Amino acid sequence: MAMPADLETDAARLRDVMAKTLAQDGSLDHPAWRAAVETVPRHRFVPGFYLPADERDGQGLTVWEPVTGQLDYGRWLAAAYSDTTLITQFDGDEPDWQNPVVRHGGAPTSSSTLPSLVVRMWRDADVQEGHTLLEIGTGTGYSTALACERLGSADVTSIEVDPHRLEQAANALYGCGYTPTLAVADGLYGYWPEARFDRIVAACSFRAVPQALVAQTRPGGKILLTLSGWLYGYARVLLTVGEDGTAEGQLLPGTVSFMTARTHSAPAFGNPAHWAAGLPERPRAARHSPERINASTEEAFHLRFLAQSAVPCAQMANVGEVLHLVDVVTGSAATLTPRDGAWYVREGGPVKLWTRVESLLDAYDEAGQPGPATFTLHLDDDGQYLRHPRLPTLLLPRP
Fold first, then answer.
1. Catalytic residue among 27, 110, 111, 143, which?
2. Which among 91, 111, 147, 258 counts the fewest CB atoms within 10 Å?
3. What is the band of 263 on the pLDDT scale with cuts at 50, 70, 90?
4. What GO molecular function annotations does the UniProt record carry, in alphabetical order (predicted)?
5. Handedness of CA 116, 118, 119, 122 (dihedral sign)
6. Active site includes 82?
7. Which CATH number fits domain 7-56+112-252: 3.60.150.10, 3.40.50.1820, 3.40.50.150, 3.40.50.10750?
């Protein structure tokens, strides 16, 4: 099926509606960013994407339906101009959008971030005219285009670790008249040829702040990125780089998560049953339920990040009702099992994983359950320290 002749007219109308909606809910409170959203044709950057079906398959996996203009013009264009993240790739496999197929499950590895969050990132990083910008994670190129519209292409550098993704993004950007500096590069190392930058903004998450990013930022410049880890806890931080090469900044409020930088992804840990087999037979009663870090609440989202900072090499897996904690670095493991309305712990190895998490939760409660914005991250040559005036300092893993 050919695209309708009035595609650009339809797109302009929907783009205007989206901008008005974002402005009304407070997401577009700056006229320059609103003008960028009204101008950049998002549909040019998402020729195909996946949307979840209403029901899971027989194995409980999410069914991802491909959406293109050829398959369903109305659905494709409406989604392109909705405030929604559009998944464009799973498991690092670049789809053939001329002959797309339904996906069952899989791990998203590239997407077009929802427009309100893209603008929020640029706003939180205080990106302004005259700034030089490094964007880590080009993705589809839509966010890059918004930055080019605001700053001018000459001041924008965007890097992407996936060469196929960058090729698609480059074609869309150049086709729309945007000519930023683009490169296939790992965000862990930034991009030295264009350094130093006034702003660095990452559209992926890291276990700790890459030191190269600090070195590539001008004194007084800012770095905005998401911290994550192997428990899939997330926190965003806005750092200001000092004259002495240190950096410091507060965690930001909210529940924002990004895909993990591929070099910081969690390693495979094997069969949970193998890890559990060597644990003590006799359990103890848990002082805290795992729901404290697993619940679908803003506090649990924050607590999972803090718990992850206390046990930075731990991973979680559920097998039936049993929650497994596994640490491939130290060889430690723990299980939490529900029984008669309570939880029971078995743990072994050099690090008592759930005991350490419980100690963090105890301290958090005693400190009055402080929110993200009360925590400060400090970076120097000795390490990266998450600090709160009423809590023990947490050391992030070496990047």
1. 110
2. 91
3. confident
4. methyltransferase activity
5. positive
6. no
7. 3.40.50.150
